Amino acid sequence: MQxxxxxxxxxISLFFFLVSVDAGxxxxxxxxxxxxxxxLGQFSEYGDxxxxxxxxxxxxxxxxxxxxxxxxxxxxxxxGTTQSDQxxxxxMLSYYDHQRGVVPKxxxxxxxxxxxxxxxxxxxxxxxxxYIWVYVSGRNTSRLGLVFKSRQPYGIDAFDKMYEGxxxxxxxxxxxxxxxxxxxxxxxxxxxxxxxxxxxxxxxTPAQKLAGMGGHxxxxxxxxxxxxxxxxxxxxxxxxxxxxxxxLQTDDMGKTWRTLSGxxxxxxxxxxxxxxxxxxxxxEGKLVYLNDLNFDKNGNPVILAVISRHSQPGxxxxxxxxxxxxWENNQWxxxxxxxxxxxxxMGSLYIQNDHxxxxxxxxxxxxxxxxxxxxxxxxxxxxGKSWKKKRSITQNSQYNQSYARRPVAVHPDFYAFWADGxxxxxxxxxxxxxxxxxxxxxxLPYHMAKDFEKPVRLK
Length: 459
Hints:
Elements lengths: L1 H24 L11 E3 L3 E2 L2 E2 L2 E3 L11 E4 L4 E8 L9 E8 L5 E2 L2 E5 L10 E5 L5 E5 L8 E6 L8 E7 L2 E8 L3 E9 L3 E8 L9 E4 L6 E6 L2 E8 L9 E8 L6 E2 L5 E2 L11 E3 L7 E9 L5 E8 L11 E9 L2 E10 L7 E5 L2 E9 L10 E7 L7 E5 L7 E6 L10 E6 L9 E4 L6 E3 L8 E2 L2 E2 L2
Antiparallel strand pairs: 1-4, 2-3, 5-6, 6-7, 7-9, 8-36, 10-11, 11-12, 12-13, 14-15, 15-16, 16-17, 18-19, 19-20, 20-23, 21-22, 24-25, 25-26, 26-27, 28-29, 29-30, 30-31, 32-33, 33-34, 34-35, 35-37
């Protein structure tokens, strides 16, 4: 009996110790900006399928940064880690103060406690009152997704958990005066797409399936109350065969969905030959890696994607073509920008009237066939019809730069941010941002002694 009591009290003590560790990490400040490093562990002739500094991963976590004009700050989330164990995932949030030119020590919104996978990274939203919402991705049903809300408008010092549920690849969009239109993934029959709505972030409508053709990866964006969803599909549920592009839209918080030409569609979509099909890449034996979605001056969607011929890294997938795909004059137009070296060379698309830009790792990096490369700025002055490389943003880097992300309502002084890391072996990972011209680069301070510090100017 005494032994049982000792074991009982030991287990109770251990439970409260673990709870206190978790509580102590959450809502505490880190001593600098340290990105998570990750390897998928699927190796072939030219290395891992993807690996490296993945603090701003994935392209399907949207948005990850938002400029708030009311306080002149760009808020951003990323996958961070600890100094002692750089594979321990922390969901981090911070901001760049455009008036003072400083960043605070980042806050730990949530400690993933033993998880090292940046698939669990977060997405960001800001409501009409300025409260900051952090949507932490789950991973199937083994790790549920979480929703946190800041205790103060535009404040990052403390967050409270508001919701927990089955949701991966979070894409929350705040619609002014209406609430959240939330797109996410569930592993029901493959990676299937769902949506839900909420006026307060706590009570949600039942999840409704948007598409289930074997699996999908999705990117979304909002324009004047209209949400557009673009996604590929996975034949037989195989993500290494991801192909085709589909698009549909809603302007009433998901009550009705339509094709881009306005034809109503019934959800969930179940046929690969759906009327929402943008292009049948499966017939061409090509794979589709979706990067970004933006809108032209007329409010029409423009897709940025990398198209290749093989799921494994290396020249067998060549050419890795960067395309912009624009809905214009009631049809889709396809235009090539450039080529790169890897399927997961993820970049972002910027549109201002006829002046379009792309920032991404289009240039070979020090780990040539690894994820990412050197960041470059590409420019089009005729609405994407032709492109030229304006400049290299990074050069002679020690590690590959990867996953250049575009903030919502982007400010010219914090135009894209990303992480670096050795693409072939474990390394530390730092975080960077550039300006609109791409002629300056700053590193977020890896170590911080003060509560506020200026980012380190590198270029």
